[in-house]
């Protein structure tokens, strides 16, 4: 079984938009890769004019939110850096190398790489003139509105990228279970120089599948 | 899924595809109309569990329930698997005008170009694999419907309480008019990767307007005008609307009430009014007609009541009560008359009858309590009957003077029991006779009656107890009787003889056993002697 990988378009966003963006992307991927019976739920983003679909699984929502919180904490410690979140789907196989040894091996069959660049907003210097302050605020609002419109367009591209990939790559998907596929959401860790956890790299290398960054 | 997976073969695969493709088209249609047909948002239904979905909703593991398809979707004919499904979503001015298509969805099963191609491709296809791919395809359609710009317009037009200058509609068919060059240039196209099935390739595509900025959504002025009109009119309309009804009520309310009141007053004395004032007789028919049944009935009842009850109030009420009292007293008085006939004959006063009644009631209550006590003391009811029988016999024996002789003449066990009972109860008989011997004073009689009743009950209890004792001692009586008849001694002698007889019998048995033992010993000794003599 080949491991299919998808590199999503990089998105530039602010700290306050991380939750909306990651929820939207992760849940859209899960919605397409959960082939068992679901109860679709429409969700509106808080800061963006986008509606995405969840699978209606409370446990999954909780898991995603926890990972987003961890990622946000990492971003606050490493500002203005490119980061990558990896959502992997795998199948577990039990092997018996020896008589008294049981080993569970993860066979990754699909990986999604979400590329983000979190930008911190510029701080404007105070002005003595009220008119100047008003102009600065107006410009800031306009700039934010323009930036968010561009972000929404970019997110839309990413979402349709997910749709395209999900439909083009189907042969590698295992048989439909009665629950969600085994998955793993990997976020950058603080001890990683390259933004990756060494354990993740070790797992990917052990799986014997090509790993593209 | 199980049924589809079972039919994984070529023939079965085609059958599965023939079942799957129409369902996919129908599901796609419902998914599109659910979020492209603006309607007031119904309150969200409670989250249903997966098991609650209908079987039809489970197709492709994606129920269309939030929001559900519009009711009109149920009346649309099911798409034909051989024809494409084309859904145009358009915007049109609310007041009428040209329709502008926002989206054109095409869901079609494109047949294979040739039977050979179908055979070549179809043989290797399994229906379960195609079904799995259709699941993803339908999920993509479901998600794309929310990512496209028309969804924002749909949400805006669904907002409750707002009437916009545009309305969104849809057309469903198997073909649609081609777009003009300008329209074609303005639209973009997205085509999802097809799914190969036995019947052909299942394709989903959409042509859409990337931006709806050209449509200036505004709340219609008619709605605002209506609101302003209501606002201006509401304070003025209230008194205008309220005044005529109040006037009508004010004029109408006093009219019927006075007319009704005279009727009620006129009904008790209609004749004097008609005779005294003939002019009023003409209005009375109109008033008299509506309450026709009430006046004569009321008058009749009133006159009858006043005529009959006025002179007879006390006697009737007293008579009724007297009757009830008499009825209540009849039984107790009768019951009371039997035991003390002589006191009534002596007194002969009606006033004194009440106190005896009360005494009798209390007596009955006491009797009930005592009887309950007796029942609780005695284990079975038969003994109570025996007690009654014994008391009856006792009274009979006591009434006749020759009872002792007659008793002695009989030799049955019952007679012996009766004799014993007579001997035991003899002292109580004196108590029973004693109250009758004192009929002189009333207070003494009352006290005597109470004492007599209590002593009588205690006698009954004692009799019952004695009877129980005697019955339980039957074996002793039998032995006593036999010894008595044989020896002709008194009761005490009988008991002693029974004791001696038991001892004698035991002694005899012991004697016999000793005899046997002695004989055995002698026999053995004799045999030994003979053996010893024979040996030397």
**Strand-pairing-aware structural class of chain A:** alpha/beta
**Portion of residues within helices of chain A:** 25-40%
**Element-by-element helix/strand order of chain A:** EEHEEHEEHEH
Per the CATH scheme, the topology name of the domain at 10-215 in chain B is: Cell Cycle, Spindle Assembly Checkpoint Protein, Chain A
The proportion of residues forming helix of chain B, as a percent range, comes to 55-70%
Largest sheet of chain B, if any?
6 strands, antiparallel
Helix/strand/pairing category of chain B: alpha+beta
Mean pLDDT of chain A: 80
Which residues of chain B form runs of ≥5 with pLDDT under 50? 1-11, 222-230, 236-457, 477-499
Q: What's the alpha carbon Rg of chain B, rounded to whole Å?
A: 58 Å
Radius of gyration of chain A: 20 Å
Mean pLDDT of chain B: 59
Biggest sheet layout of chain A = 5 strands, mixed
Write down the CATH class of the domain at 10-215 in chain B: Alpha Beta
Order of helices and strands of chain B: HHEEHHHEHEEEHHHHHHHHHHHHH
Offer a quick outline of the entry.
The complex is a heterodimer of chains A (213) and B (536). Chain A has 213 residues and is α/β, with parallel strands linked by helices. Chain A is 40% helix and 26% strand.
């Amino acid at each position: 079984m080949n491991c299919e990988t998808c590199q999503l378009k990089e998105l530039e966003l602010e700290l306050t938009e991380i939750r909306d963006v990651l929820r939207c992307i992760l849940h859209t991927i899960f919605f397409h890769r959960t082939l068992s019976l679901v109860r679709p739920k429409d969700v509106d983003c808080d800061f963006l004019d986008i509606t995405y679909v969840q699978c209606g699984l409370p446990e999954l929502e909780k898991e995603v939110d926890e990972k987003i919180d961890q990622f946000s904490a990492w971003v606050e410690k490493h500002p203005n850096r490119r980061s990558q979140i990896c959502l992997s789907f795998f199948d577990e196989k039990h092997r018996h190398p020896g008589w008294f040894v049981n080993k569970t091996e993860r066979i990754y069959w699909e990986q999604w790489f979400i590329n983000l660049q979190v930008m911190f907003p510029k701080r404007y210097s105070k002005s003595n003139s009220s008119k100047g302050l008003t102009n600065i605020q107006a410009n800031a609002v306009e700039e934010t509105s323009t930036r968010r419109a561009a972000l929404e367009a970019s997110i839309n591209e990413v979402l349709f990228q997910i749709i395209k990939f999900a439909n083009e790559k189907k042969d590698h998907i295992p048989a439909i279970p009665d629950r969600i596929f085994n998955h793993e959401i990997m976020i950058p860790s603080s001890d990683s120089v390259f933004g990756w956890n060494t354990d993740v790299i070790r797992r990917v290398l052990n799986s014997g599948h090509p790993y593209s960054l | 899924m199980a049924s589809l997976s079972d039919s994984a073969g070529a023939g079965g695969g085609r059958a599965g595809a023939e079942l799957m493709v129409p369902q996919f088209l129908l599901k796609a249609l419902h998914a599109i109309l659910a979020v492209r047909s603006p309607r007031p948002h119904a309150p969200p239904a409670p989250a249903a569990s997966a098991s609650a979905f209908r079987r039809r909703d489970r197709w492709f593991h994606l129920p269309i329930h939030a929001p559900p398809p519009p009711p009109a979707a149920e009346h649309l004919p099911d798409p034909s698997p051989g024809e494409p499904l084309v859904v145009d979503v358009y915007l049109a001015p609310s007041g009428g005008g040209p329709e502008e298509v926002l989206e054109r969805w095409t869901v079609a099963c494109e047949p294979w170009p040739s039977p050979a191609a179908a055979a070549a491709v179809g043989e290797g296809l399994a229906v379960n694999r195609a079904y799995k791919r259709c699941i993803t395809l339908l999920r993509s359609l479901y998600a794309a419907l929310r990512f496209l710009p028309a969804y924002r317009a749909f949400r805006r037009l669904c907002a409750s309480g707002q009437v916009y200058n545009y309305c969104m509609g849809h057309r469903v068919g198997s073909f649609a008019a081609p777009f003009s060059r300008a329209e074609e240039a303005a639209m973009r196209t997205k085509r999802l990767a097809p799914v190969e099935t036995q019947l052909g390739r299942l394709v989903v595509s959409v042509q859409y307007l990337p931006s709806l900025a050209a449509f200036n959504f505004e709340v219609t002025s008619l709605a605002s005008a209506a609101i302003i009109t209501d606002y201006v009119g509401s304070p003025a309309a209230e008194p205008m609307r309220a005044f005529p009804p109040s006037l009508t009520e004010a004029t109408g309310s006093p009219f019927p009430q006075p007319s009704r009141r005279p009727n009620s007053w006129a009904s008790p004395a209609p004749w004097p009014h008609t005779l005294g004032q003939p002019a009023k007789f003409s209005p009375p028919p109109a008033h008299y007609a509506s309450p026709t049944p009430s006046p004569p009935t009321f008058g009749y009842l009133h006159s009858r009541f006043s005529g009959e009850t006025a002179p007879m109030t006390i006697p009737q009420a007293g008579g009724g009560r007297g009757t009830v009292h008499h009825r209540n007293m009849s039984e107790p008085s009768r019951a009371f008359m039997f035991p003390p006939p002589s006191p009534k004959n002596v007194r002969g006063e009606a006033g004194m009858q009440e106190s005896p009644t009360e005494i009798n009631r209390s007596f009955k209550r006491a009797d009930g309590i005592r009887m309950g006590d007796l029942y609780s003391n005695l284990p079975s009811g038969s003994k109570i009957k025996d007690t009654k029988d014994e008391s009856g016999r006792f009274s009979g024996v006591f009434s006749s003077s020759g009872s002792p002789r007659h008793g002695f003449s009989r030799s049955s066990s019952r007679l012996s029991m009766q004799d014993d009972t007579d001997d035991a109860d003899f002292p109580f008989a004196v108590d029973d006779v004693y109250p009758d011997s004192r009929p002189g004073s009333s207070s003494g009689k009352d006290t005597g009656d109470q004492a007599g009743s209590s002593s009588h009950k205690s006698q009954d209890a004692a009799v019952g107890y004695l009877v129980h004792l005697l019955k339980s001692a039957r074996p002793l009586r039998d032995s006593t009787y036999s010894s008595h008849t044989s020896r002709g001694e008194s009761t005490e002698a009988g008991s002693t003889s029974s004791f001696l007889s038991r001892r004698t019998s035991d002694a005899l048995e012991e004697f016999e056993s000793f005899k046997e033992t002695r004989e055995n010993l002698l026999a053995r000794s004799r045999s030994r002697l003979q053996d010893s003599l024979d040996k030397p």
